[in-house]
Specification:
With 390 residues, the chain is of the alpha+beta class. It has a domain of 203 residues: Phosphomannose Isomerase, domain 2, CATH 1.10.441.10. 26% of the residues lie in helices and 30% in strands. The chain has 12 helices and 21 strands. The strands form 3 sheets. Strands 1, 4, 5, 14, 15, 16, 17, 18, 19, 20 and 21 form an 11-stranded antiparallel beta sheet that branches. The longest helix is centred in the middle third of the chain and has 17 residues. Bound molecules: zinc ion. Zinc ion binds next to loops. Zinc ion (ZN) binds next to loops.
């Protein structure tokens, strides 16, 4: 067998939506808990399960197996599936965060091992030695903060509020030193920090500027957290359904609200700078941040139309390749280079390879082994396809 229907675990993080996954995909929520993420992959923390006579975890099936991962994938990415694919449904903002690049992850992981910090310790930053670039594809309007705004947007946003505690630091920002400004902001403590946040919120309440309104909104979820000022520093973007953006290593970001597909390299390395009850490590965060700016209009990935009804969203990393397939427009077989996961976004499709076929309806997914070679898609609606680039 080369195509397997997946049963995917749900993560009930507190920022998750109670109803988005039920409304979009009919996934029952009897307990009424938030349903934050649906994981599709072979991550040992919460692997997908394969439905055969026995239930088998996907990592148990594929890790180290050339038949499933493919020779090229084993050589390039190691013993496990190189990506993790998710449905993410946020009802409230997630932590403000950055992810390390490969070298930083290698160094950080080795260093924390040397210090003897347990892998599952609350204060562990590096849980593995891999980078964690991410790509999100909006299923509903999806709001997020991603990357530093252009300088000529950033400093006027602070200046218009006349925040006295930031007067000196603002002069550094005007000269282009985002790093010095951000380090100063994140180092404020006690009364100094409280005074700044209080003054900022006073301005935010009266302001009709969207960035300042976002400050106000964040403060409702995380009152008094210095991270509520992030919308002044970062681009605030709303993806429309069908748009995608990339989040590279070292980019400060936070998801705010909405449902999306997310694909990332197989890693759990997150450095947080607030808006969370999880571990925050500002010095380590500052080591990984790239202090360059990006215009809002440059954030979305350009979709590239391929044959067979496929539209690719190409990012700068090889660990994953994300594309969307319009099933009606598939005319020939789709070629498999490495292990794949297909997720049905809408409609209904039958995925066929030789004798084996799996029927997909919205919210369901299947794993396709590298050895499958090629497969057919019959049906209508939209499939999301995740694989790696060899
Ligand atoms: Zn992230």
């Amino acid at each position: 067998m080369t195509i397997f229907r997946l049963v995917n675990p749900v993560q009930h993080y507190d920022w998750g939506s109670q109803k988005a996954m039920s409304e979009l995909f009919g996934i029952a929520n009897e307990s009424g808990q938030p349903m934050a993420e649906l994981w599709m992959g072979a991550h040992p923390k919460a692997p997908s399960m394969i439905m055969t006579d026995d239930q088998v975890a996907l990592n148990a099936l594929v890790d180290g197996q050339e038949e499933h991962l493919g020779k090229g994938s084993l050589e390039k990415f190691g013993q496990t599936l190189p990506f993790l694919f998710k449905v993410l449904a946020a009802a409230k903002p997630l932590s403000i965060q950055s992810h390390p690049n490969k070298q930083q992850a290698l160094d950080g992981f080795a260093h924390e091992n040397q210090l003897g910090v347990a892998l599952d310790a609350f204060n562990r930053n590096y849980r593995d030695d891999n980078h964690k670039p991410e790509l999100v594809y909006a299923l509903t309007p999806f709001r997020a903060m991603n990357g530093f705004r252009p300088l000529d947007e950033m400093w006027p946003l602070f200046e218009m509020a006349g925040l006295r505690p930031l007067e000196e630091a603002l002069s550094w920002l005007k000269k282009g030193d985002i790093k010095a400004f951000y380090e100063h902001l994140m180092s404020l403590e006690g009364e100094e920090k409280d005074q700044l946040v209080t003054a900022a919120l006073k301005f935010a309440e009266a302001s009709d500027h969207p960035a300042w309104q976002e400050v106000n909104r964040l403060n409702q979820f995380y009152p008094g957290d210095i991270g509520v000022l992030s919308p002044l520093l970062l681009n605030v973007i709303e993806l429309i359904p069908g748009e995608a953006m990339f989040l590279k290593a070292g980019t400060l970001h936070a998801y705010l609200e909405g449902t999306a597909l997310e694909i990332m390299a197989c890693s759990d390395n997150v450095l947080r700078g607030g808006l969370t009850s999880k571990h925050v490590d500002v010095p380590e965060l500052l080591k990984t941040i790239e202090f360059d700016t990006i215009a809002l209009s440059d954030l979305c990935l350009k979709p590239e139309a391929e044959e067979n009804g496929e539209t690719r969203f190409v990012s700068p990393v090889d660990d994953f390749l994300f594309s969307v397939i319009a099933a009606e427009n598939v005319s020939g077989a789709l070629k498999v280079n490495a292990a794949e996961i297909l997720f049905c976004v809408e409609g209904q499709q039958v995925i066929k390879a030789g004798e084996k076929s799996v029927e997909l309806t919205p919210g369901s997914a299947c794993f396709i082994s590298a050895a499958t070679g090629s497969y057919q898609v019959v049906g209508k609606g939209r499939l999301a396809r995740a694989t790696a680039i060899l």
